[in-house]
Amino acid sequence: MTPVERREALEAIAVEVRGCTRCRLHAGRTKAVPGEGHPDTEVVFVGEGPGLNEDRQGRPFVGRAGDLLVRFLGTIGWKRDDVFITNVVKCRPPDNRDPEPDEIAACWPYLERQLSALDPALIVTLGRHSMGRFIPGARIGLAHGTLHPVDPATGAPSAMVYAMYHPAAALRSSDVERLSYEDAAGIPAALLEARRRRPGAASVNAPGPAAISASLTTSESITIDTAPDAPTFF
Ligand code: URA
Ligand code: SF4
Predict the structure, then answer these.
(1) Counting ligands in written order, which one lies closest to the CA of residue 170?
(2) Is the full-model pTM beyond 0.90?
(3) What average pLDDT does the segment 21-25 reach?
(4) I need a surface site. Which of 85, 91, 126, 147 has the fewest CB within 10 A?
């Protein structure tokens, strides 16, 4: 896909999402939140679902959790526009309840298509619901800060997944906040490792329009699960 085709594909998905009535969440939304970011990025962040501010603005992670996410990115020298940010459900669940499995399933094709257009090297999951779709059976307390091969059925067969706590959880707990800063520090090394494992990796390192700096200085802070078929260790 050329960069122009990628932009068009992402915009077409966003238009569909804004008019979508595939699950009950459409009934309570003000605006659907398709996601946004750099169309040529190597890194996609996937949260849970829009909250109050996101529902009002039609943009992901623009409330307090979003501010914290931007602070995490800032610690590694990244801006929100360097990456793509979206959610497993694109419409706000009432009273910010967890999305139901059938709602996640109904919305999944949009995320799958976004990932297939973006073809990221690294997917960073924010919270349990997002992690659960990419690393089935994982427990957040053990999986956060670790890198995993992605389930090929996700639409991003050549990506790796790095799990983080949800920033809203970090707002509620200073322990989770501290762990989240540590996990954020591990993102550049996770990206380097994900790049290294991509099919045809040699050419991927060429700086592109959205070249993101990934330094090795934080590599000691991540644990990498090197055996996709090994029994899970959590
Ligand atoms: N929480 C999420 O999971 N997603 C958003 O977009 C905002 C808050
Ligand atoms: Fe459609 Fe997803 Fe919104 Fe449900 S949450 S109405 S599937 S866009």
Answers:
(1) 1
(2) no
(3) 98
(4) 147
